């Protein structure tokens, strides 16, 4: 039988902006220090003391419930194919791409921002018909990432792939891989950041400004600069990625960790357009930001301690969903609107 642990503390309403009074932080008791949060099949899973728990909420509060199934069976840790990046993950698709993963580990880039100095030299794509395609980089770059992101960016019904490509001398760029005349290749990149060891981390994919086009949000240098940027692929025109908006003072990664999902995408203000929740640059606040009609904060919520884990959505079909994040003091926080 599973057991549960109830919520123990409601923090004061600590937010700023027009919607400040609507948002609050709720701390949840855990049996041990919270070290990780993952999203599995659309549900948040919390690791406390090496065991996994799900979050259940109600109008009166929230609680952690032990996951009876073994973590290995519940979390996305499928056996990696031969030659895959050792700490990488497989992305699974619902369209023409069945799976995609990073491969050909290499030590030619000594950054180590993701916990070690081994990055990927290629991207492997397995299509629904079982065929495998490889996008291999030249020796001047690596894929400084852990998992490809699949999305139909141009609306043609086929999956495209978003991945971080880092040049040894010029730093990181956001790259789009798509099928062209039967061959998968890099079809667009943002300009590299201009120097080695300058990295970016994607924060979400969706229509964030309401123009009916798919955007890619990223955080430029989330450890020192922390600028949230919105990029759109002009696939029907010159084929380039163009930056349409920026917002400063955020982060979605801690240097040396493999937690790349410190952001969550949902319609948080109920206007029918997607927004993004992610920590502030110092990770002391949870910022919920919108890009329609312009870049702005929906809420800016003070956290009891710094954010240290991935950000996940709880009850994502609620209006709006609840945000979950692990804190530096080992507790779990839920950010919710009354």
Give an account of the 3D structure.
The protein is mainly beta. Helix content is 1%, strand content 49%. It contains 1 helix and 26 strands. The strands form 5 sheets. A 9-stranded antiparallel β-sheet has the order 3-4-5-6-1-2-26-25-24, with no helix packed on it. Strands 11, 12, 13, 14 and 15 form a 5-stranded antiparallel β-sheet that branches. The longest helix is centred in the first third of the chain and has 4 residues, at 71-74. The protein is globular, with a radius of gyration of 20 Å. Residues 1-21 and 71-76 have low confidence and may be disordered.
Please give a handful of descriptors for the protein shown.
globular; mainly beta; 26 strands; 338 residues; disordered N terminus; 1% helix
Overall pLDDT level: 91
Specify the number of helices: 1
Q: In total, how many beta strands? A: 26
Q: Which outline best applies?
A: globular
Please report the distance between the alpha carbons of the first and last residues: 32 Å
Instruction: Provide the spatial order of strands within the biggest beta sheet.
Output: 3-4-5-6-1-2-26-25-24
Estimate the strand proportion.
over 45%
Structural class: mainly beta
**Rg from C-alpha positions?**
20 Å
Low-confidence stretches at least 5 residues in length (pLDDT < 50)?
Answer: 1-21, 71-76
Element-level helix/strand string: EEEEEEHEEEEEEEEEEEEEEEEEEEE
Percent range of helical residues: under 10%
Major sheet: size, sense and barrel closure?
9 strands, antiparallel
């Amino acid at each position: 039988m599973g057991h549960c642990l109830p919520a123990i503390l409601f923090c004061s309403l600590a937010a700023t902006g027009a919607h400040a009074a609507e948002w609050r932080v709720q701390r949840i008791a855990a049996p041990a220090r919270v070290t990780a949060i993952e999203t599995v099949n659309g549900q948040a899973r919390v690791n406390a003391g090496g065991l996994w728990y799900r979050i259940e909420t109600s109008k009166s509060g929230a609680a952690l419930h032990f996951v009876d199934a073994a973590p290995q069976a519940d979390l996305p840790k499928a056996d990696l194919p031969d030659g895959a990046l050792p700490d990488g993950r497989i992305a699974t698709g619902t369209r023409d791409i069945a799976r995609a993963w990073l491969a050909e580990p290499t030590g030619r880039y000594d950054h180590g921002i993701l916990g070690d100095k081994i990055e990927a030299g290629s991207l492997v794509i397995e299509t629904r018909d079982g065929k495998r395609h490889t996008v291999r980089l030249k020796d001047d770059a690596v894929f400084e990432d852990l998992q490809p992101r699949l999305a139909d960016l141009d609306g043609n019904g086929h999956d495209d792939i978003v991945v971080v490509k880092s040049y040894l001398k010029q730093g990181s760029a956001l790259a789009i891989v798509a099928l062209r005349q039967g061959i998968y290749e890099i079809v667009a990149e943002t300009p590299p950041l201009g120097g080695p060891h300058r990295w970016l981390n994607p924060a979400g994919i969706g229509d964030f400004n309401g123009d009916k086009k798919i955007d890619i949000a990223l955080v430029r240098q989330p450890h020192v600069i922390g600028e949230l940027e919105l990029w759109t692929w002009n696939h029907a025109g010159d084929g380039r990625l163009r930056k349409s908006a920026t917002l400063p003072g955020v982060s979605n990664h801690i240097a040396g960790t493999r937690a790349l999902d410190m952001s969550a995408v949902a319609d948080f203000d109920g206007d029918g357009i997607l927004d993004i929740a992610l920590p502030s640059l110092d990770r002391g606040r949870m910022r919920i930001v919108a890009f329609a009609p312009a870049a702005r904060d929906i809420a800016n919520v003070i956290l009891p301690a710094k954010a240290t884990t991935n950000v996940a959505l709880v009850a994502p079909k609620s209006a709006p969903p609840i945000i979950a994040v692990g804190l530096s003091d080992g507790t779990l926080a839920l950010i919710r609107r009354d």
